[in-house]
Amino acid dehydrogenase
Amino acid sequence: MRVFDHPEFDHHQQIVFGCDEASGLRAIIAVHDTRRGPALGGLRIYPYADEADALTDVLRLSRGMTYKSALADLPLGGGKAVIIADPRRDKTPALLRAMGRLVESLGGRYITAEDSGSGEEDMRLIRQETRHVSGLGRGGDSGDPSPFTAHGVFCALKSAVRHRFGRDELKDLRVAIQGVGHVGAHLARELHAAGAKLVLADVDRDSLGMLSEELEAQNVAPEAIFDAEVDVFAPCAMGAVLTREVADRLRATVVCGAANNQLATPDVAGRLHDRGILYAPDYVANAGGVIEVEAQRHDRYDREAVMRHVERISTTIDEIFTRARAEERTPSEVADRLARERLG
Ligand code: NAD
């Protein structure tokens, strides 16, 4: 397995492979960059086909966290951890505590948090071995980062709509949301409250049905969401959803959602741009969660201040779209450059 010449390797500062025979732990922690602060990033537990897949994921996700935190103006670097395991079958207290010891061995250079396959309960077990954990919530005030992520996406979406259509109001704006899980459902409710008309899709038909009824939304089959006659497409399910084929197929002229790593390949940004589709770079739009997780690390937690910070995502997105237009570049290129400037 190649590491230093891996296509996703980007001068990562440290990559740690951890193994614990007793609990069956097989994990990788990637610390991408700590110039702005400790490398914070979630712990993904997923049954990767092999360790090459796990390495690809952790390298890509940890770099994304560096850029996300830099553009969200957080005193954090970027890191990520993955455990090669099925979260429904293999997640045991012994496995999580072994992971806690691995995190502890980095002495605070890496701070872990929830991600897909891991939740607040798991973080409590990890906390028994290390204090370098966030995402444990602060009583009734915080905890689940998804409402904050959704609010950030909502702010980014409003900014994109202003740039693309020259309007501030969302009334009667047509929005298609792919995936109405934690983030997608919160986003749908905020958009509904602002007067938008929704088209929803999810592979989980039960939760989709209930939400559609509540919000008087149209629901469509998962594959049909790309063809919906809408103004905005909001990917809130999985990554790599924006393939060349999808870029050619979309009817929406704004793409703004919560999913990480939406572009299947970097060239899709150019294809969207050529078709006049304004794409809000995912790691800028979906930074609300990490802003909340960062705030939880401090003694004083002020929910209003966290919300104001999340709302500044609009300002960053505005700057990216304005520069992209002036420089005739894609918003993705501009976002990457802006992040590198902040790291510089
Ligand atoms: P989630 O698992 O709660 O929701 C995802 C939803 O997508 C589920 O309801 C699932 O059934 C649905 N789905 C899966 N495949 C689908 C398909 N092909 N078509 C339609 N629906 C499909 O996850 P979440 O926490 O809401 O996160 C959503 C996305 O946002 C993920 O990509 C995640 O990495 C990203 N994200 C989440 C946060 C957060 O705060 N939770 C923060 C940043 C980024």
User: Anything to note?
Assistant: The pocket of nicotinamide-adenine-dinucleotide is lined by residues 116, 145-146, 149, 178-184, 201-204, 222, 236-239, 258-260, 286, 289 (CB under 6 Å). The longest strand covers residues 25-33.
